[in-house]
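To: structure desk
From: M.T.
Subject: fold request, one chain
Message: Could you run this one when you get a chance? Sequence is below, nothing fancy, just the single chain.
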Amino acid sequence: MVWSEFFSFALVGLLAQLVDGALGMAYGLVSSSILLAMGLPPAVASATVHTAEVMTTGASAASHAWFGNVRWRLFRQLAIPGAIGGILGATVLANVPGEIIRPYVNIYLLILGVMVLLRALGKRLSRHQVHHNGVLGFVAGLLDSIGGGGWGPLATSTLIARGGAVRGTIGSVNAAEFVVTVCVAATLAFHIGIQHWSIVLGLLAGGVIAAPVAAWLVRHLPEKAVMIAVGTLIVLISAGQLLHRWLS
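Reply: Done. Structure tokens follow.
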């Protein structure tokens, strides 16, 4: 193992999990973006990140459960279809390039990010709740496995944008992500194996350290502040990736 590589990715994992646990998103997006920039194929990057996330999402799920942030009915509605979508997406990723679908996902996320920001700023949006959480979980799991990340941005931002309570939504989405991550990691390991263990262990170490802190933050931060942070994060990530694709 190269220790400098391990500690570098431990820092990446710590920062990514701190954001993910507090806002319900971005661990996979941050980590996968770095791995793809290093030249790893999308399937290998997704497998590496999801393997590390087995422990980090487990720690995050346990932390949110401990602090009472999980709505268990919502957890079940997301986790089971999400696992099915994740397995299907991982199987596709192992055989077909996943880059084709990314622009459409980024456009969707950009729209949702704007909706969250408008709601945080007091603009009245539709009060209609998301009644088909299973469909949402399936699509989020499918795209998360293909893109190497995206479960949180899709699930969390959709539920919050349509009126879901911030604390319960973030806690439930994080808990369900553990189930999805285990299924995706196992599927990719079956198809292509696991490589780059120094990166996996670095991401894992940093993420586990950050998980309890992130769960504490989401319990105590003001809801409006969290919503503004969520919306801003989604807009910056999605707009940045669309701009990068357009310029390249």
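Reply (cont.): The CA atoms of residues 106 and 240 lie 9 Å apart. Let me know if you need anything else for the meeting.
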